[in-house]
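Hi there. Long-time user, first ticket. I'm pasting a complex I've been working with (about 429 residues overall). I'd like to know whether the download I got is complete or cut off, because the file seemed smaller than I expected. Thanks.
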Amino acid sequence: MQEVIAPPLPKGEVEDEFNPLLSAEARFDEAAARLNLDEGMQKVLRSPAREVILHIPIQLDDGRLEVFTGYRVQHSIARGPGKGGIRYAPDVTLDEVRALASWMTWKCAVCNVPFGGAKGGVICDPNLLSPSELERITRRYTAELFDFIGPEKDVPAPDMNTTEQTMAWIMDTYSMHARHTQTAVVTGKPIDLGGSRGRTEATGRGCMIVTEQALRRFGLERSSARVVIQGFGNVGGMSAKLMARAGFKIISVIEADGAVYNPRGLDIPALMKHSRETGSVTGFSEAEDMDRDEAFFLETEILLPAAKENVITSHNAHRLRTKILCEGANGPTTHFADPVLAEKGIFVIPDILANAGGVTVSYFEWVQDRQGYFWNEQTVNDRLEEIMVNSFRDVVAYAEKHGVHNRTAAYMLALDRVAFAIKLRGIYA
Ligand code: NAD
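Hi, the file is complete. Here it is re-exported in full:
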């Protein structure tokens, strides 16, 4: 294998390490420099195409009026309509939404689906709001965005604290304004309203597919591949379920309140049942409880962080003992930790590739809605596999060709594809 150039040590203060916008910019700068992207194009790719800020008046259940602030950032529509989730959380900021929107542009370009990147959010605390208050926020947010979203413009999806039900409300509100039912305006809908089969498992399935591709490069069999998974929610839980079924040995599952460990491999369906019944993975009779920090640094072939951002940092990256890091979560590794991973020779499957199974099946949902013809689950899974395998090969080939690590390669590939689309289209006016 060709010698690779390690990413440079990042500039900036340590306090910057956890800022998602700075992290996104650091990776962008690195890829743009290696591509020798001209300054003008860098300016274009760096700036969001459009940012909408809304102040939404909502009548609360007790009769009071409250005003909520919401955002929709469309980072790029060069390769197709914007695509990206909407999150509801008290700490949503415009900077965070901007970073997440640009990540969506790069993710869609890496897996070569014909979308740009967008993201939205409303500053609110869903734990303090009733379902009907959340419905009113969602409907007013959608109505205010009517001119900016749509199947040809920008297609939202669920994200933190938004669900299938939220998507159903958006679809309905948009359709009422459009005067006809328009299912393709959002993805992540319930199957009965134009959702896609296989969407719930898609991100976990994608993680499994790319991990398998990485294993082959190490000449390892699934049965001898030990896996540690952090997070047992949608991405972590589905990855665990599908990987265990395929013969991987999941030796530890880490949750917010603790971890479980069995060196012979955990019985994942039984652990899921235990977790459903008790509300925790700990106390599982067929495994021993373990400190969650200790479990994260177990010696393993595959580490799959699938919980939250910023869990691998400049403070702990040196303790990792894995061959392959499959980033199921968005942004689990800070840019300060990248050089440490490079130095340790860890094979990183970066988030914009590893968790792209979700947006890929969202693309399938949009296609099926527009066709009005729905595929069976096998068709969805087969097409997902084809896209994930091709994307993995594209990134690894790019890394080898340019002598860089996988994350830099994924960003370079994405920037290259988006810049090429912009050049082909030309700059209007
Ligand atoms: P989720 O809420 O279903 O699951 C997250 C799980 O992580 C929860 O069970 C939570 O208890 C656990 N957790 C929280 N803090 C933890 C900690 N410190 N240690 C261990 N576990 C902890 O969320 P999800 O949909 O599975 O998303 C997880 C990550 O994957 C997020 O970064 C998300 O942005 C990303 N992602 C999700 C999708 C998708 O399709 N759901 C797609 C792409 C990326």
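A couple of notes from our side: The pocket of nicotinamide-adenine-dinucleotide is lined by residues 203, 230-236, 254-256, 292, 306-309, 328-330, 355, 358 (CB under 6 Å). The radius of gyration is 21 Å.
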